[in-house]
Design brief:
The complex is a heterodimer of chains A (about 400) and B (about 70). Chain A is of the alpha/beta class. Helices cover about 35% and strands about 30% of the residues of chain A. Chain B is α+β, with helices and mostly antiparallel strands and about 70 residues long. In chain B, a hairpin with a 4-residue loop joins strand 2 and strand 3. The chains are: A alpha/beta (about 400), B alpha+beta (about 70).
Chain lengths: ~400, ~70
């Protein structure tokens, strides 16, 4: 380790690795610090991504792809299952390999990486962030940097120390539990989503198939629901009813900040990327690709600022993010609020309507059209999504 | 007085509680979690956000005291 860096990235997930890579690519000296022992572990994720989404960053490779997804399945509260072919394929990843590959990519551009380095404070001078305080091998240390990139996930605190309001309203936190279970006999290429008050109120329940008849099975519920019944209680009930004897390979908990991006994601000497910036797609709850995009935009701008010796340039990051994805997330968030408030009867009637459409004519587009008939006010928001594209 | 309790040996260190804490009162390391009682206001948002029922609002700790 050097005595000082241009850029310190805190957190070694996809957003952190991409921020490190793109800052290093501009010539900055970069150190990425991970608090856990391993990059990519523990995994706290359903692991679904679109092919187009990851291709911007890494060549799809079977070492980190568990299964290929080409269908979307919806199971309504009365048990009606409709399967819809997807126009664009997706993947279920092996995150513990995927995150490693991304970190290696950052390293190949010159970023240094250290694990088990726990950042517990910031060095702030004259209102500007100038480095981090951290614990490493039992010692409390300090390290200076021109810019700190906070990629410290849903549990982010670094932004707060820099005076940015980052805590999430408990109603916007989707508290998730998931098991990866074996002997799950589902179609290996279909993402399954269960909707309804009994399985996942104000959220959805998922079964994402993985290699060799295993699957990620889980759900997220908002804190407003968690107040009455925990995510874990819903998962246990589902497993008891559907897969009582399935061997459980992994059991995890995790949080998805399911709302719009923070109002402010940069301040003098610091920017926030990924879950720490709340850059998750609030409609799908997907945060891998959007976090990587945030990391790329942030890392590039920080790298440019170092190269031009103009640190004020990092403050342009908020706008750059808003125009690439942030604005679209605001619309997704409104659509989410519309859909998550559907009654069980509305989910049932959507599923019944789609099941009458012949398979070859089904698309996500006409699923949405059917949803619109149940809630016409969504139309305006959906129209905006297509306009912004 | 700190009324939020972390039940021992149940935590998965996922960070939901840290994300929703308005007071920055919860510290999470690799496999270590603690609440700073000088900052915690017992608002219970962490209890509601915990996916696996690790956090608890301990009413008994209040004893016979009345909250005014």
């Amino acid at each position: 380790m050097k005595n000082e860096y241009d850029v310190i990235v805190v957190g070694g997930g996809p957003a952190g690795s991409m921020a490190a890579r793109f800052a290093a690519e501009q010539g900055a000296s970069v150190l990425m610090m991970e608090k856990d022992r391993d990059i990519g572990y523990p995994v706290r994720c359903g692991e679904a991504v679109s092919k187009a989404g990851i291709e911007e960053f890494i060549e799809p490779n079977e070492v980190f792809i568990s299964t290929i997804i080409d269908k979307f399945g919806m199971i309504s509260p009365d048990g009606t299952e409709v399967v819809i072919p997807l126009e664009q394929i997706g993947y279920i990843l092996e995150r513990r390999v995927f995150d490693y590959e991304l970190a290696k990519q950052a390293a190949s551009y010159g970023a240094e990486i250290v694990t088990r380095a726990y950042v517990n404070g910031l060095i702030i001078e004259n209102g500007k962030v100038c480095g981090v305080k951290y614990e490493y091998k039992g010692e409390q240390l300090e390290l200076r940097a021109k810019v700190v990139i906070a990629a410290d996930g849903v549990e982010s605190r670094i932004g707060r120390w820099a005076g940015i309001k980052t805590h999430i309203d408990f109603r916007d936190m989707e508290s998730c539990t998931q098991v990866t279970a074996a002997n799950i006999d589902v179609d290996p290429n279909t993402l399954l989503f269960y909707f309804g008050k009994d399985v996942a109120p104000e959220g959805y329940f998922w079964i994402f198939p993985k290699r060799n008849k295993s699957a990620n099975i889980g759900l997220g519920v908002s804190g407003a629901i968690g107040k009455k019944k925990s995510s874990q209680a819903y998962l246990n009930k589902f497993m008891d009813e559907h897969y009582p004897n399935a061997p459980v390979l992994t059991r995890i908990a995790g949080g998805v900040p399911s709302s719009i991006t923070l109002e402010k994601i940069s301040a003098p000497g610091i920017i926030l990327v990924g879950d720490a910036a709340r850059q998750v797609n609030p409609l799908s709850g997907g945060g891998i690709v959007s976090g990587m995009i945030g990391g790329k935009i942030g890392g590039t701008i920080v790298g440019e600022a170092i190269k031009q010796n103009n640190l004020n340039h990092i403050l342009t990051y908020d706008k750059a993010w808003a125009s690439r994805l942030g604005k679209r997330h605001e619309i997704f968030n409104r659509i989410k609020n519309g859909i998550y408030n559907f009654s069980d009867e509305q989910f049932n009637s959507i599923a019944h309507a789609v099941s009458k459409v012949p398979m070859e004519k089904r698309s996500l587009g006409n699923l949405f059209k059917t949803a619109l008939l149940n809630k016409p006010s969504l139309l305006l928001d959906i129209a905006k999504v297509f306009l912004i594209k | 007085m700190l009324l939020i309790e972390i039940l021992p040996n149940k935590c998965d260190f996922c960070g939901c509680c840290v994300g929703v804490c308005p007071e920055d009162a919860i510290e999470l390391k690799e496999a270590e979690i603690k609440i700073d009682e000088t900052l915690c206001t017992n608002c219970s948002k962490c209890v509601w956000a915990c996916p696996i029922e690790v956090l608890k609002f301990n009413k008994e700790k209040l004893g016979n005291r009345k909250i005014i």
